[in-house]
Amino acid sequence: MVDDRRTVELNPLFARVGEATSFPRNRIPESESLPETAYQVIHDEAMLDGNARMNLATFVGTWMDDYANRLYREAFDKNMVDKDEYPATADIEDRCWRMIAALWNAPDPDHTAGTSTMGSSEACMLGGLALKRRWQHRRRQDGASTDSPNLVMSSAVQVCWEKFCNFFDVEPRYVPITEEHKVFDGHDLESYVDENTIGVVAILGVTYTGMYEPVKDISAALDRIQNDTGLDVRIHVDAASGGMIAPFLQPELEWDFRLPRVASINVSGHKYGLVYPGLGWIVWRQAEDLPEDLIARVSYLGGDMPTFALNFSRPGAQVLLQYYLFLQLGMDGYRRVQQNTIDVARYLASEIGTLPEFDLWNEAQDIPVFAWRLAASADRQWTLYDLSDRLRMKGWIVPAYPMPDNLTDVTVQRIVVRNGMSHDLASFLVRDLRACVDHLNQANGTPPDAQRSGFHH
């Protein structure tokens, strides 16, 4: 829709004598303005955004400490792709993904392949491309067609995988989730896998609900399929959220490179990696899992450096921030931060679960995310969308949405708890949510406008 408001107005108090007080909304102005003026215009519009700390819809980090902010300011100008100009940043990038490879139990973390990305979406694209290229090489060696690749994944997959299949001509095969199978768990997998399957995606922290898909069970199902058919299908784990939760809070859970069938894993550094947006990481089990023909070579300190990210120029600052957190927090610090976050999420789930209006879909048992739906009631006249609107009036952003295919008649509401959401803030959210529910329950008995008392100064 075209915005028919043609100008951006500035309060005359903020303008200098003789300076313009309005600017064309969708055209570059003809003349200059003072930096203070341009700042004030943008500052005033940005105030209309929600409070990031009260945004319980996003997984993306919204807080870092003062030293991180200082480091961020010092590194605004670093371009991650220019490894020859910024060799120290390039070296720190390598240290980070090797640390992550070790965290995920890669067989040889120092001699595998990995990279930073703009976010998990780019990392997923790279993981999918590597699966497709390895499948193409294998098919060509066998003298078979490479015309019809497919990728098997949950119907609750993040939208970046739909984009991957669309952009790179891969047929998506969605395994539906149901009331009996709330996540993709390997059931009926043989109905989806064939000789054209480039891989299977398993999600460690489903976007809809935060639940883990059991990678070990999916791997076992693929083992059975290989025993029956000879098909050797690898797994990419989309651990955008869970990749920085499970190693610290569920270290005994086998989901990573301890499973030989897992070829690659991605994570969002800007989610539970605790960095500002946007930063992602991808690591392959071993260097051979990243086909050589996907790698470009650049000159670096008189030597040779591989590069295989899809993006070119991108900020290097977030990479330095990730390294800062690894040094500052260490394993113990990450455990403490993530444990506190999941404790807050479980407190919220327990409080919301006590309200008779709701049925919990899950209880933040995996990552600090949970969802709920309305309990059955014949006389209720409001929906979760109404509740979402009421909460927004109090500043809280708590989304409501339908579940994916096969469950589209189920609407849920979801809370994502991130570092910075304290128990104190959570108690205020519970208070406000209860007040919103009470208001909605009473709304049917509210007198008409003519009968309401007026406003008194």
From TrEMBL:
User: What general EC class does the enzyme of this chain belong to?
Assistant: lyase
Q: Name one GO molecular function term.
A: glutamate decarboxylase activity
> Do you know which Gene3D superfamilies this protein is assigned to?
3.90.1150.160, 4.10.280.50, Type I PLP-dependent aspartate aminotransferase-like (Major domain)
| GO CC annotations, alphabetized | cytosol
Q: Which family does it belong to?
A: Belongs to the group II decarboxylase family.
Annotated GO biological processes are: L-glutamate catabolic process
- Residues bearing PTM N6-(pyridoxal phosphate)lysine: 271
List the cofactors.
pyridoxal 5'-phosphate
Name by which UniProt lists this protein: Glutamate decarboxylase
- Read off the Pfam families from this record: Pyridoxal_deC (PF00282)
Which organism does this sequence originate in? Corynebacterium glyciniphilum AJ 3170
The encoding gene: gadB
Q: Which UniProt keywords apply?
A: Decarboxylase, Lyase, Pyridoxal phosphate
Q: Which PANTHER family match?
A: GLUTAMATE DECARBOXYLASE
The protein's annotated catalytic reaction(s) are:
L-glutamate + H(+) = 4-aminobutanoate + CO2
Q: What EC designation does it have?
A: 4.1.1.15
